[in-house]
Amino acid sequence: MSIRTRFAPSPTGSMHIGSLRTAAYAYALAKHSGGQFLLRIEDTDQKREVKGATQKIYDVLQKFDLGWDEKPVVQSQRLKIYQDAAQRLIQSGHAVSDQGAIRLKIPPRETISFHDFVLDHDVSWKSDDIPPAVLLKSDGFPTYHLAMPVDDHDMGITHVIRTVEWLPSTPIHILVFKYLNYELPQIGHPSAILDPAGGKLSKRKGNVSVEQFLARGYLPEALLNFVILLGWAPKDNRELFTLEQFVSTFDIKGFQKSNPIFNTQKLDWFNGHYIRQKSDTELTHLVKPYVKNKLSSTQITQVIPLIKDRLIKLSDFDQLTQFFVSRPAIPPNASVSPTHLKFAIVNIDAILNNEIVDKIKSQGWKVGDFFMSLRIAVCGSKFTPPITETMLVLGKEESLKRLNSAIGKLKID
Ligand code: GLU
Q1: One domain, residues 21 and 34
Q2: pLDDT digits (tens, 9 = 90+) for 261-304
Q3: Which ligand 1 atom is the nearest neighbour of the CA of 152?
């Protein structure tokens, strides 16, 4: 039988980074064995629904190449199906109508167990500890407790991967599956992602939405690679995975029981890596929406190769290239020599033609000291892209202006 998984987000706002992880796991589990990955929009909590959020779910999944098979199932279009299921439960004596709502009758003194295929252990509850569960609200809308079993059954889902918040509700779902005579799918809950500051990763503590990460200039490839390793690891210690490689390597034995920690430095590392995999042309195209500092298209194209190695997020572009746009200040106490700068002015052509090194040496100067003076005068910083290439992009005229202006400032000081 082929594996069928689903991603079942609620359209209640931007997608949480943890949901992207859930989607990627469900996708890989299905696709690894040539199965199907389905999408279900869980929009039965009309009060929490945010306009436009469903479209954003489609957009985000497409951005990450997590394409779904078959037409998405939209719960609000299936109310009659849930209402019928609730009636069947009443008729079989497993639910009661209670002031307009329909509630599950929880049997006394039963043990309810299942094997969590992600955490790879058995979990059991005593039925007397299970809280009352509404299945259908008085407005005719189902709760998740009813809609989930009905839909997973109708969609032929074989494996459910969902966030660990749902683990305590699992016995309710197991009962509903049983009372509706549905076969229980495999259910698994990847462990919760922790914030480096402690506790669960949450909105309160900072950015958690996929959209925000994209807006800050993280590449989808990097975000995806980062999230799949939050709670899953391959047999070897390999870290770099395209989606395709993840799918072909995927193995449920790779799920980890310990809670992963959201390490932004690691995410930055992935992003830097994927940025450097891009061609200069691709990167120029990607960076453009983030450029606010008025560099022209030609200038962006020229500058990209110079800063590519230092670019961590696309949004760092402005800061790294600010000195191309405005003449920098000379930092106080900078080690810059007016003599070096005067020499640079006279020998500007030799600098731009990469023929300056011997001339510097014949002055008895250290090459590094000379270039440090140039860096500070031209870029206002000790840390710059390759300085000759930078001056070539700035042009001879602007480079000379900066050298002269620095000499002027150094004299006044
Ligand atoms: N709508 C639920 C959520 O977003 C889905 C849980 C599930 O995957 O079954 O948490």
Answers
A1: yes
A2: 999 999 999 999 999 999 999 999 999 999 998 888 888 999 99
A3: 9
